[in-house]
User: What shape does this take?
Amino acid sequence: MTIELSKLMKDLNLTDEQMKSFESVQTTISSAYENDFETQRSSMDNKNKELLDKLAKAKEDRVPEGFDIDGYKNYIDNKEEIEKDKKKIEDDKLIATQNWDKLKNEMNNSHEKTLRTETKKLNKEIDSLRKTLDSELIENVALKEIDAVDGSQTLLMPHIKSSIATFKEETTGRYITKVVDSLGQDRINSKTGDAMTVKELVSEFQANELFSGAFPIQNQGSNTNVNAGGGTHNATNNPFDKKGKNYSLTEQAKLRKTNPTLAKSLSEAV
Assistant: This one.
């Protein structure tokens, strides 16, 4: 009984019998209260333990999204093996990529090597065909002009061929011949200002005393020998040269009639 309650009981002037009865009731109430409190505390402890067990189980059963409990447990139990397998897959992928890059580079190198070889072979064939074409074009045009004046192909062809080159026309794509100098530049006729023709080139050789032997026959009426009647004309016995001892109007007329190309060349040379 508390001090406040004892003081209150004295103030009420209760008899001893009433006091004993009150104390008995108080004892019963206190006992019941203590029992009830103990029961409530035990119940709360049990409830708290139940809640803690549920929370622990909830934490144990919690898994990442997309995994079931068994799958997650299997992942936890075999995590090291799974990581090893994953690394092996990544390594195999890297090796495969490296092998593919190596194979690709080898294929590219082989292709480039084959392409260079075939290109070189093709260019060689093209050069050979071009040389053959050049030779045919040059010889054909040179032979035509040499034969026109009964010149010697054997003596003249090497010199004339070295003075002629072929060119491709940009507009038509055809290959044509031109007379060129030692540097490969177009030769110009000093009298006309036009590009020199092969015919004019042959006439230049006709007028040169050094090549007199290349023209054994001059067309002087009946294909007579050049030495017959002194009919050979070149730079040293030019009938168009007024300062020379062989100046002759008669020979000029004959030459213009029988060999106009040579006549023109000799007349332009003075």
Remarks:
- Residues 218-230 have pLDDT under 50 and may be disordered.
- Residues 100-198 form one domain.
- The chain has eight helices and two strands.
